[in-house]
Automatic annotation (TrEMBL):
Coiled coil: none annotated. This is Transcription factor & chromatin remodeling ARID family. One of its GO terms (molecular function) is DNA binding. Residues 32-127 form the ARID domain.
Length: 212
């Protein structure tokens, strides 16, 4: 009932839903309802909040397969966010986890950037704003020195969001531009991964032979 009652009229409504998603067990039990509501939230955020009306919701692959935005969001969050996934070349693995092929990894990165990246950024910034406000209110209750030259609590907390690595591929409506930018990132090294697996298998076989 709580999920169905959610209605998106300002960003705090988005924040309420994203807060719910921090509970993995809750997501597991109500995945079907949450998928619909998450898609509704992304649609409101892009079309109303950002004023972008040219992006199809839900997004689809080149083969016209629907992309589950909630699952994409949850998996990327599990792997520490967009920046970490990109730096560690995990997009091919993300694609595989979602039921696609390794080759679809770059496309998943573009979809995340254009649909979810700025949403996550606003969510984190909102959280930082609230924490900064709480600290300022606590500071006001304390007796401050007459001449204080220290930085404000909000200035200290705001570093949390400004220090985040952020690629911001979401900007604008240029799918081709975002896709080309994503292509410039280094590729997942399948040869190196295959070699590591083969070496591990060989090691296991040698160990088994010694025990026999």
């Amino acid at each position: 009932m709580i999920i169905r009652a959610l209605d998106f009229k300002d960003f705090n409504d988005c924040k309420n839903l994203l807060n719910m998603l921090e509970d993995g067990k809750f997501v597991f039990h109500y995945k079907h309802e949450l998928e619909k509501k998450f898609e509704e939230m992304v649609s409101w955020f892009i079309t109303v909040f950002l004023g972008i009306t040219t992006r199809p919701i839900p997004p689809v692959t080149i083969e016209n397969r629907r992309i589950d935005l909630l699952s994409l969001y949850m998996i990327v969050e599990r792997d520490s966010g967009y920046s970490s996934v990109t730096e560690d070349n995990l997009w091919p693995i993300i694609a595989k986890d979602l039921g696609y092929e390794y080759k679809d990894g770059k496309y998943m990165g573009v979809v995340y950037a254009m649909y979810l990246d700025v949403l996550v950024y606003y969510y984190r910034f909102k959280d930082v704003q609230e924490r900064a406000g709480d600290l300022e209110r606590m500071k006001e209750k304390e007796v401050a020195p007459e001449c204080s030259h220290g930085r404000s609590a909000s200035a200290e907390v705001i570093k949390d969001v400004t220090a985040m690595d952020h690629y911001a591929l979401y900007a604008g409506n240029d799918w081709e531009g975002a896709w080309n930018m994503q292509k410039k990132r280094r590729k997942f090294n399948f040869n190196q991964a295959r070699k590591a697996v083969e070496e591990a298998n060989e090691s296991v076989l040698k160990f088994a032979a010694k025990r026999n």
